[in-house]
Amino acid sequence: MSISRRSARRSVRILGVASASAALVLGVSSSALACNIKEFSAEATCDGSNGAITVTDKDAFGTPATITVFLENNGADAKQVGHAQTVKGSKEGTKVTFAEDWAPNATYRVHVKVHSGKIKIDTDITPNLTTSSTACTSDESSSPSPSESATPSPSASESTPAESDSPAPSASDSTTAPASASDNAPSPAVGESNLAETGANSNTGLIAGIAATLVVVGGGAVWFGMRRRGAHSGN
C-alpha cells in the first residue's frame, strides 16, 4: 500500500514538532544545570584574631569562576581585597578565602565572573556582604590569664586570727562563779513552790464545794416544799 503525499507531509510535520520540543526541553534543562550566580555565597569569618572573607561555590559542574572582593564605602569601592582568585565549584561547595582584617558592620562587594562556552556570568553576589557587629578576637584575650583565673590565697591576717589583747581568764575565774547574795537565803520547800505556781493552796476548791452543797440543799428544799403543797391541796 503506497503512502499518499498528504500522509507523508503530515508525518514530516509531526517529526518536526517532536524534534523542536526535544531541543527546547534539552536547552531548558542544560541552562538550569549550568553555573548560576545563586550557587555563590560569601561570609565574614575569623581564624582567631585574623579575619577573612570566605566565598563558597556550589557549582556541581566545576565551571571555573573568578572571584573579586571589594571593600565598600558610601556605595563606592574603597579598595580591592587581595587579588582575584579562580575557584572550581563542587556539589558539596568549594571555598576560597581572602585575608582581610575586617571591621564590625563593614560592607563588601563580591564579584563573580564566569566565561566558559555558553555560560557567561559577570555580576555581584546580592545583597552585599555585611560583617558582624563584633570584631575577631584572639583566644588569649577571650580567655582569662592564669594569674587572673587563679584563686587568690588568703592573707596572713585573714587566715590566722589575731590574738586578743585582753588577758585570758584564769582557771579559778572560768570554773567557779562568784556566789550571789540570794544563794545564802533559804530556798522554799518543794511542795510550797509547786502550790504557789499551780494555785493549789488557794480557797477556790473549798468555795466551789460549799456552793455546790448549797445548790443541792436549795434544790431539795424546793422539791420538798412543792410536794407538801401538793399534798395539802389534795386533802
Automatic annotation (TrEMBL):
Positions with biased composition (Low complexity): 130-189
Disordered as annotated region, ranges: 124-196
Domain of life: Bacteria
Transmembrane spans: 206-226
Keyword Signal: yes
Signal peptide limits: 1-34
Matches recorded under NCBIfam families: LPXTG_anchor (TIGR01167), strep_LAETG (NF041528)
Name of the protein this chain belongs to: LAETG motif-containing sortase-dependent surface protein
Source organism per UniProt: Streptomyces sp. R39
Lineage: Bacteria, Bacillati, Actinomycetota, Actinomycetes, Kitasatosporales
